[in-house]
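Handoff note, outgoing to incoming analyst
You'll be picking up this chain. Sequence as last confirmed:
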Amino acid sequence: MRASGTARLAVNKTYKLYIGGKFPRSESGRVYAVTDTKDRPLANAPRGTRKDARDAVVAARKAFGGWSGATAYNRGQVLYRVAEMLEARREEFATEVAAAEGLGRGKALALVDASVDRWVWYAGWTDKLAQVAGGANPVAGPYANWSTPEPTGVVAVLAPQKSSLLGLTSVVAPVIATGNTAVVLASEKAPLPALAFAEVLGVADVPGGVVNLLSGPVAEVAPWLAAHQDVNAIDLAGAAHNAGVASVRDLEIASADNLKRVLRPEAKEPDWSADPGVGRMLAFTETRTVWHPTGN
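Most recent structure output, in case you need it:
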């Protein structure tokens, strides 16, 4: 118990990775200092390694069968639960986003609200996308033919570098809404909202391994994800706007080794508050066509 009148030492939060529904430290034990936009220290974030990336891919692959096999309606319920839990911690995340992005309280709250709304939006799409991207095909002959979108598999996601929460939501939610599992590398400069968001995922009915969150230098971790043979697709949203990252072309070349789907980054940081459309959901789906005889 501290003596009367003495200054109290703050208990700084220790952030961890999120892999397979658990919160491990980086296998290297390394961390790196995270500062705000004025270079004031905020906390230390785990410095993920190749081994951490491999563990995350293993967890994502293990979770894929159950998540992709769940009904679209059930996935929507889970995404809506994420929105509920994020809403419950609205004030806390506003503080995280304000510090990470150098924003006033009002703007930070607006970004948190937009993130909650986006989770709700994608929750509503889970059982409707098949009606937009699939359907019966007009064919001639004694058979019926229809197509439906199906998940690609394990998707690596390089989260946007500047938009620490809304941008993160905008690239992660469409991946898991369609039945994929994700290995996400958080913003290198502003990883704390993403690492805190892992705590939301941990209590929001999201099965362990469906979303795995790493932090660390993009130039160190991204090439391993791009080259990993058990990663089926990669979203390079956070690659173009980070000076230290391996070039987008290098990551595309590494991804080509096992014919990954690659979603290239836009030339400029997009407006993550704009209507997202269905493009990111369709980017990581395959079209399955079924033929069935109907008789004469």
